[in-house]
Fold this sequence. Notes:
The protein has helices at 14-37, 61-66, 84-95, 109-120, 143-152, 181-196, 216-219, 243-253, 280-296, 334-346; strands spanning 56-57, 59-60, 68-71, 99-103, 124-128, 157-161, 205-206, 227-230, 258-263, 301-304, 361-362, 364-368, 373-379, 385-391, 396-397, 402-403, 409-415, 419-425, 435-438, 442-447, 452-458. It is α/β, with parallel strands linked by helices. It folds into two domains: 6-346, Alpha-Beta Barrel (TIM Barrel); 361-458, Immunoglobulin-like (Sandwich), CATH 2.60.40.
Amino acid sequence: MSFRKKHFISKKSLLGFNQYRRLRLAILRTTLLALLGILLISYPVFLAPSTQAKPEQAHSADSFIDSIGVAVHLGSQNTAYKHYEKIIKPRLQELGIHHIRDGLAFGDRENQKKFHDLAKVGIKLTFVRDPRDVSQPGDVLTPEKAVKQATSMVESLVAIEGPNEWDIQSHLQYQGQNFPEGVRRFQAELYRKIKANKSTDHLPILSPSMANPDHVTLLGKVACDINNMHIYPGSQIPKEFNTRFIQNTKKLCGNKPIIITETGYHNAIHEPRNHKGISEQVAAKLIPRLFLEFFNRGIQRTFVYELIDEHPNPKLDDKEKHFGLLRYDGSRKPAFIALRNLITLLKDSKTKSSKAFTPQHLDYQLSGSTFNVHHTLLQKRNGIFYLVLWQDFPGFNVQNKKEIIVVKKQVFLTLNEPVSHATTYQPNDSIYPLMHYENEKKISLGILDYPLVVELVPGKNE
């Protein structure tokens, strides 16, 4: 489920990898219990009713779209990722994202071409650099090699990321040192050499990632420009990501931005271990909300894990084979469709000549049954606002493995400034409009546990 996949690990390391997965399950169990124990420690905006006492400033729609990323494993040629031309590239373009996260073995020029190819269509790479990123058993990716490889593909890159989840892999070493000293040493050398190279010095460098965010205290402050977090809500709801983990993560780089390079849900509903899954239909509700919730909390970018199920598993009892937005055969899961439709609705028509854009305020109020109704307010360059609302509800019973039916809440949207047209959409169901309104000052909305998008055109129809 996480990023240390086959192309990151030499053949000699595969036995240790199986042991690592068992350890990861124990960590997940501990993390999920900790999350449940501090459920009420959240940002106040997410526990209070969705009402505004004064006009709210929107975020740019561009900034939300730019916050969405997907983890891939293009070098894993014994998995579904081998179908690059037929499935992977077309689906990435269809989804409408601008960011992927991956690593690459040093010297793997064949798969390096794929990153160049994706960059040409506007999909850039956050590039994981780890001493294990090698093709030959016993070899090590040194910072010097990492810089050489990054230089050769710099047009494909948007950021560099440090080592992946060494905190739960006690056998790993760099220059004879285990975690945390080995990771700290590699990260310091990587940062220094990337910044000393004129071809790569502009690239921001993410901190190493922790499988357990609490282990940040063991690593401490490292050389980095962006804090890096991994967080899996399990079968639960996104609000269980909370201030404790944000504050721990900031011990890596201080008060700098945070990027979540792994998060998501799996669909192995018969998984016997402790990290339980949810149905495909419920994942379609939670995954778009995951991006919205983290965006609201100020997370710069979030990468969902992952694009496609790597191997078939019809019994739905192995979580590692069901994290994808796509099934193993490349068919679209409901979560892929929901996310694609949301991106299609909210993407802006920015061009190279587009001027800088500062979103405006919208004077509105939500009333009625607003408890546990969350929202995000966005605006495009053309001035049109997009108010996204959803109920914060888990939606899946892991005991009986059934979807929980959520009662629609009636929420009233009062517009305190002229709006000529309002249109509602439910991207989980369709890209087409639900309802149209003209010159309305108060609109009744039905809010479910997946996003309702309200398009608001400022001005007044004469």
